[in-house]
Amino acid sequence: MQERSVVFKLSLLACLYFSQGLPFGFFSHAVPALLRSYGVDLQVIGLVSLLALLWSLKFLWSPWVDRYGSRRFGQRKSWIIPLQFGAMLVLLALSQLDPEQLRNGTWLYFFLLLALANLLAATQDIATDGLAVQSLHPRERGLANGIQVGGYRVGMVFGGGLVLVILDRLGWQHCFELLAFVLLLATIPVLLDREPVAAT
Question: Would you say 5 and 196 are in contact if contact means Cβ atoms under 8 Å apart?
């Protein structure tokens, strides 16, 4: 029973770190190629790198994420679940954009949605790290660290390379709808989890 619990906790963390890697891989690898294919200027494409600032600045709001939350529902879950569903809504909003209009003014709206997706993912990372520390025994943390890196990297590969393949096969709208569905699947373990109560 204990082993099953460990497997569940590691699977939950793998899903959450995958969810973080997906938007980061998308904006850092897929977006430049995508924008270039639709004729967006290189100067505009160069602005994509600014989205990484949200990950670097997350220390500014991390104290609030660590301090506040619903003890009844789960302090970390009360952040993670809304953030996951928020990211799904952003992906659905992206699915409604017309990619042919990116070279005109739509690229700004596209960038704002990507910035929001990265803000949500960076904040989710804060809560997920807190959940990992709170849930794992010291002997489990080495393996969990490997799961963290692996899940994040798989998410980056999915968001950075496979998205382009899926987009070519399914088209713009269905591609982002599929990504939203993948995030929904990755959220299921969190919904099923009973978060341990943090010590006061």
Answer: no
